[in-house]
Amino acid sequence: MAASKDAAASKPAPPQAADKPATASPAAKGDAKSKGLAVLEGLLGKESAPVIPLPGRNKLEPAKKAGKKSWLKKLRWRHAIVGASFLGLVAVPATLASLYMAFIAADQYHSTTSFAVRSIEGGMSSDILGMFTQASGGSTVSDSYILMDYILSERMAADADRKFKLEDVYSTRGLDYFYGIGSDLPIEDKLYYWRDMVNVNFDHASGIMQVTVKAFEPKQARQIAQFIVDQSDNLVNSLSLSARNDVLRAAQDEVLSGEARLSKARAGLRVYRDKSQEISPEEGAKLAVQLIGSLEQQLTQLNADLATAKSQMGEDTPRIRVLKTRIESLEQQLAVERQRLGTGEKTAAEDPNAPDVAGRIAQFEELETEREFAERAYTAALSSLEKARIEANNRQRYLALFIEPTLSEMAQYPARLLNSLLVILGLLFAWGIGVMSYYNIRDRA
């Protein structure tokens, strides 16, 4: 028994029992550390927590690997959709647009011309600078805006279509259907295309208008630009003529009215002279007064002779009878002459229409006054007409052409690189807005 006890005492201890005190402290530390990591993962979220290989976590690795694979699958699907949308909405259209601009779009040439609406006002200036400033003076801004609207109007497009046949001039070149015009289009579509091919720039400070015409052939561009210049010149001339006629019309009407009034006054005066058979009743009145005075003088002399004869002769003597007869004749003649000079109250009451000198003078003065006033009015109307004519001539508008329509030797349009860049930027902008909107809605949901 003693031997067995010694053997048992000398037998080594089991490994677990021997190592238990030694391994108890690391296991406790590992468990405490795994609990801290679990709390940290709960605060940060499982998907964002780093995977740290620790003892005691081997059983959770398959589940975490499956979650990681599903997250990557979702991420790849979303990115694939974004990439596909970029290819379909940006890369492919931008490439097609660039190829179209580089190899399909037809060359376009432009013709440029510059002109301005000018007016001449006032007298001639004494210096050269004044001559140019007078020639360019005047309020022609409104006329320039009228001309600009006319160039881009439906009337101009219709006139150009009748002269050049826009469907033939701007027909499709090759496969370039974007810049070409269609066939059998209404005037509204032709006007839209006309405004795209014709550009008008107006400088308000200098009054200069620049017109640029685009076409597929340089000669056609110059011909259309020259047609625009000719039509603009005709419009300005017609506006100037219309304004001149408006200014002169009122003055001419006044002249015609004054002339008719003067003719009527002269006709009335002539009728009066035909009836009265005298040029001027005033002159007749002067002669009547002189005649009455002479008769009164003779009557006075006869009365004196009669008184002398009565003192020397008897009443029945022939001399006294002759003197009395002459005195009676003179008195009758004097009464007649006085009646011609003035009707008097008694005669006027008996015969209001008696032809007396005073009435004829009043009627003649009325007609003469009307004639004089009509002559003055007619003279004033003629003077106003002359002034209006001078003013109208000084305010004439004309089209001052500074630059003749040019002939291009090299194509300027379309701007291939610029148009390609604009298409790319526009597609990128639209695609970026769509992607940002998608992520914004996704984050809010």
TrEMBL record:
InterPro entries to which the protein is assigned, alphabetical: Bact_polysacc_biosynth/exp
Could you read off the lineage of the organism from its UniProt record? Bacteria, Pseudomonadati, Pseudomonadota, Alphaproteobacteria, Hyphomicrobiales
User: Which regions are flagged for Low complexity bias?
Assistant: 1-29
Q: Which residues does UniProt call coiled coil?
A: 292-340
Region Disordered, as annotated, extends over: 1-32
> Transmembrane region positions?
80-103, 417-439
Entry keywords, A to Z = Coiled coil, Membrane, Transmembrane, Transmembrane helix
Please give one Gene Ontology molecular function term for this protein: protein tyrosine kinase activity
Q: What is this protein called?
A: RkpR, polysaccharide export protein
What Gene Ontology cellular-component terms does the record carry? plasma membrane
